[in-house]
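hey can u run this one w/ flavin-adenine dinucleotide bound, need the structure tokens asap thx
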Amino acid sequence: MFIRQGDVADGSQLSAAVCILGAGAAGITLALSLQEAGIPVVVVESGTLELDESVEALDKGQAVGIPYDLDAQRRRGFGGSTNCWSGWCVPMSPEDYVARDWMPGSGWPIGRAELDRYYPAAARVVDIAGHEFAPGAWMPNLGLPDPPVALDGFEAGVWQLSPPSRLGEKYRAAFESSTRIRCVLGFTATRLVLDRGGERIQSATCRALGGKSLTVKASLFVLAMGGIENARLLLLSRDQRAAGLGNENDLVGRNFLEHPAAIEGAELYVWKDGPGHAFFAKAGKGLRPQGYPVSPAGGAKLPASLQGPARADPVSVVLGLSLAEAAQRRHRLPQFWVVPSEGPFPNPEREREAREVLSALDKGVDRAFSRIGLTFAIEQRPNPSSRVTLGTERDPLGEPVAVLDWRIGAEERTALKRILSLLGESAARAGIGRMRLVMDPESERFWVPVGGAHLMGTTPMGDDPKKSVTDRNGRLHTIRNAYVAGSSLFPTSTYGNPTYTIVALALRLADHLKAAISRA
Ligand SMILES: Cc1cc2nc3c(=O)[nH]c(=O)nc-3n(C[C@H](O)[C@H](O)[C@H](O)COP(=O)(O)OP(=O)(O)OC[C@H]3O[C@@H](n4cnc5c(N)ncnc54)[C@H](O)[C@@H]3O)c2cc1C
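ok here u go:
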């Protein structure tokens, strides 16, 4: 059931087995899974069922590093940022799980098998066709060979696109009719209060914009408020611990990660009669407008691994390329992915320049080519100075705003330049075409403030309390009943978009909490 602000008397108290703070992708998934096991849950959601500007104002913060619009990168409201997400889904890559000596903080405390158990259920939450991302499974359905393109050092990748599912809309009725979930709307958690022993959270203090306050008591607490607010609440809770909760090693808020990206930061001129054109022409369709339809209705079939009852919704996939693992190792480079998109030149001047470059490089050969815009992103190096702290300005509840100092280091710039030159060399060697940088990655202008609204880092999981904030289950190392859900758990920024993994991790946490509750 939903409990609206009007139904709550000032100063009231609620209690449940589990209190989940935040009803976005992680919080909704977790609450529904716990209620299936009969566990009573209180969910506290800062927003309401409608998006409301006065509540959104709580997301205003200060960006002091790379320009970053904290407002535009998330939503306050039931469903969280899935109210505006684009729906791109991809699992972590095998490289994400393992330690790489050239990537600080790399190597997740959990292995691939852990998440593979939960991805199929996560696929149902976000409404993609199923947990099938192997290019070989999709290529025949897309009329492409496997592999679809031969580019030394790079391999094809598949994203599935959620419609995109707005999880607030999708699960509103399930919450409304639930007798196990009480979801309090319009209350913002502003403090976590420790019990006398100091090792457990006793309650969460929550406040509404109208001035009411509410206390929630629970045996277990889960912070599911997104990558910035999870850290902010721990830092705000400094009445009993001067540095905030879980922050004994000054790690909360540090290592903020995004996916530095450049929209059409380079162009590839692909010969129309060459070996890569079929792939690049199809990959390009992915972006306009929403993926490449491969539903039965669209003429093509789902991969054999996903065939079952016919789907009403079309299935959409986008094709991209990533830097192959062997190339990452050989050149000690981070992960990188690029989504190509065929399209016209933005202006005649650019077309003239491209023709000049091509005829100089290819000794005047006058061949027909397609312009492929390359939109790409890179895995960021964890950097303790890239961080979330508390500011001096106050939000509408009178609490210090989040200050984000997002930094992209020289290593990322140099690595990206190197990867792009590898891509250009491979394309030329394979006879696919020629690549041209639209701008130099080492120039400031190149890094338009583009991230993917992927807010990662800030409370990473790990086995060593000196290097991580939570353990492998997302539990704060130093507080026995407080867990974190969401991409703030990510020790490294992973391959691609985070939400599919956020949902899989929330399902895994639900199983962990169910087991903990049944043991208690
Ligand atoms: C424009 C845009 C496009 C995106 N596209 C993609 C994409 O294509 N693919 C992808 O994987 N990801 C995408 N994302 C990111 C995706 O939306 C997030 O990764 C995902 O929603 C995060 O889930 P979450 O549950 O951790 O946080 P959220 O979904 O942000 O939910 C957090 C919830 O906590 C609530 N909250 C915050 N503070 C408090 C508090 N103190 N007390 C109580 N409640 C609180 C908020 O109101 C919100 O409802 C996109 C995001 C944006 C903004």
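The longest strand covers residues 213-223. anyway lmk if its weird
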